[in-house]
Amino acid sequence: MVFKLYYWDGIPGRGEFVRLALEEAGADYVDVARQPGGTGAMLTLMKDARDAAAPFAPPFLVDGERLISHVANILFYLGPRLGLAPEDEGLRYVANGLQLTITDCVAEVHDTHHPIGVSLYYEEQKPEASKRAANFLSERLPKYLGYFERVLTQNPKGPAHSVGGQMSYVDLSLFQVVEGLRYAFPHAMRSNEEQVPALVALHDAVAARPRILSYLGSDRRLPFNESCIFRRYPELDLPS
Amino acid sequence: MVFKLYYWDGIPGRGEFVRLALEEAGADYVDVARQPGGTGAMLTLMKDARDAAAPFAPPFLVDGERLISHVANILFYLGPRLGLAPEDEGLRYVANGLQLTITDCVAEVHDTHHPIGVSLYYEEQKPEASKRAANFLSERLPKYLGYFERVLTQNPKGPAHSVGGQMSYVDLSLFQVVEGLRYAFPHAMRSNEEQVPALVALHDAVAARPRILSYLGSDRRLPFNESCIFRRYPELDLPS
């Protein structure tokens, strides 16, 4: 069965957390909106007046008859099917809890440049973005990074993974969080990374995995840009 | 087995979505932080340096050896155990996707009074809150309500439930969303509710269920207040 991933073309965004899992597993998938006519097909599906599972927003995954929305939900579904979830049922809920903390972190990163409204341009909310980003960098960023570091160092199976003794989709998502934060806030990350060595080591280990390495060098990997969640606006970062 | 729910005392907040499921099922549970010494016990658990599943924030649920964090994750876990999830596995992912859309909606409601930072008082971010709330009420509120209405009316099993043909935790959460929005934005809700009759009918049906009715009249049900997610600041609502 070919998995169909639906997400906005042109940005890594929230879709990237799903792509990384599909790529690491070597899964057969189509990134629908990046095919000719794909964005139209995605919008049609979202407006389908008959579909009981119509999603609120991308990303969503279609697997045969099933349509599954929200990153954490997609990964909870895909994890066991791709060999990227813990075997133990209890640990699967731990993984899902961690993924939902990542979801919250990503939403807060988005709001550093969009604190007033998603429908407005960044340029329409710059003074507010400046305040929100300052608050995020001084309080929330160290809190999230410290929490993820703690999860790794408290893992009874060792700090190489976030849940259990094997690679999971949570590890892949943490890699992407570090990548995105380094893109958006290079100075702030430089002054925080020393405090989170296990998280940095996990990032580097994921980046070196053969399938991820090959994916990162391919044109399937979209570069970060200023239409994405992680945006580089130097005025929102710490001074160099 | 007695479920232990950990959440801040004094507010319904995010804990309420879990409480409603436990109450509807007549489950045996303890609302830990509302017991003597309970908040201290909760904070101790959150700081536990040995726990691999240490949560980022309340609410979390303890079921024997398991600690499960995040509302949607707790409900995904509890749903089948309380008879409040669809039997069909595919529909369980639909339910989880809906619950995650509710999670996003609740986070946006929170940010109407806290657009700059959770660590600041509302009084420190009033001008920004005014802008964010105006954007929320004009664009996001109708979008969320319309989406939930659509989910109900497109349910092949009929509009009385959000997923499948039976009451689920998603229905209970939608009740709470309507309750909270009516508390926070009474004028805005008055001008929106006519467009979402199925959602209002679902709210009323949940409120009339015997165990919910009894719960709502008990002192276990905490009133909304201005320390909660749903806050009544008349200056953020539409004019009457």
General description of the model:
- The structure is a homodimer of 240-residue chains.
- With 240 residues, chain A is of the alpha+beta class.
- The first copy, chain A, has a domain at 89-209: Glutathione S-transferase Yfyf (Class Pi), Chain A, domain 2.
- Chain A contains 9 helices and 4 strands, in the order βαβαββααααααα.
- A 4-stranded mixed sheet of chain A has the order 2-1-3-4, with helices on one face.
- The longest helix of chain A is centred in the middle third of the chain and has 28 residues, at 126-153.
- The first copy, chain A, is globular, with a radius of gyration of 18 Å.
- The mean pLDDT of chain A is 96.
- At the A-B interface, strand 4, helix 3, helix 4 and helix 5 of A face strand 4, helix 3, helix 4 and helix 5 of B.
- Chains A, B: This is Glutathione S-transferase.
- Chains A, B: It comes from Sinorhizobium fredii (strain NBRC 101917 / NGR234).
- Chains A, B: One of its GO terms (molecular function) is glutathione transferase activity.
Produce a short descriptive summary.
The structure is a homodimer of 240-residue chains. With 240 residues, chain A is α+β, with helices and mostly antiparallel strands. Chain A has helices spanning 15-24, 38-47, 71-82, 89-113, 126-153, 169-184, 186-192, 197-207, 210-216; strands at residues 3-6, 29-31, 60-63, 66-69.
The low-pLDDT segments of chain A are none
The CATH architecture classification of the domain at 89-209 in chain A is Up-down Bundle
Report strand order across the widest sheet of chain A: 2-1-3-4
Task: Please tally the helical runs of chain A, counting DSSP H or I stretches of 4 or more residues.
Answer: 9
CA(first)-CA(last) distance of chain A = 49 Å
**SSE arrangement of chain A, N to C:** EHEHEEHHHHHHH
Structural class of chain A: alpha+beta
GO molecular function, one term (chains A, B): glutathione transferase activity
Pfam families (chains A, B): GST_C_3
Protein name (chains A, B): Glutathione S-transferase
Keywords (chains A, B): Plasmid
